[in-house]
Amino acid sequence: MNALHQYMFDAYRSARHDEPPPPVPGALDIATLRAVRDHRRFEAVLTGRPARGRLRGALLRRLHAGRGQAAP
After folding, report:
1. Rounded distance, CA 61 to CA 27, Å?
2. CB 14 within 8 A of CB 22
3. Residue 51 and residue 30: Cα distance in Å, rounded?
4. Over its length of 72 residues, how does the chain's per-residue pLDDT go in tens digits?
5. How far, in Å, CA of 53 to CA of 20, rounded?
6. Residues 6+ apart with CB under 8 A from 17
7. pLDDT for res 69
8. Cα 34 to Cα 70: distance, rounded to the nearest angstrom
9. pLDDT at 6
């Protein structure tokens, strides 16, 4: 059974019990990703790391560290 089948069963069950239908599969994906991103930024601030620009900073450090080395 996939998510669509489960959704159809849940929607049918909620209609029979006069309850609100469940959210459509995938409807809350973006909100979940934003919540995860916000939590990671919050954890970064608590540990004393910058909340934004961590990936770019890491890539720039890696780029500048590799300039002094000769190519193989």
Report:
1. 38
2. yes
3. 20
4. 888 899 999 999 999 999 999 988 888 889 999 999 999 989 988 998 877 777 777 888 888 876 766 555
5. 41
6. none
7. 61
8. 42
9. 93
60, 70 Cβ separation under 8 angstroms = no
Q: What angle do CA 50, 54, 44 make, to 5 degrees?
A: 40
Place of tokens 């990936």: 55
Length of the chain: 72
Provide the phi-psi class of 18: left if phi over 0, else alpha when psi is between -120 and 50, else beta: left
The predicted pLDDT at position 28 comes to 87
Distance CA 42, CA 28 (A): 21
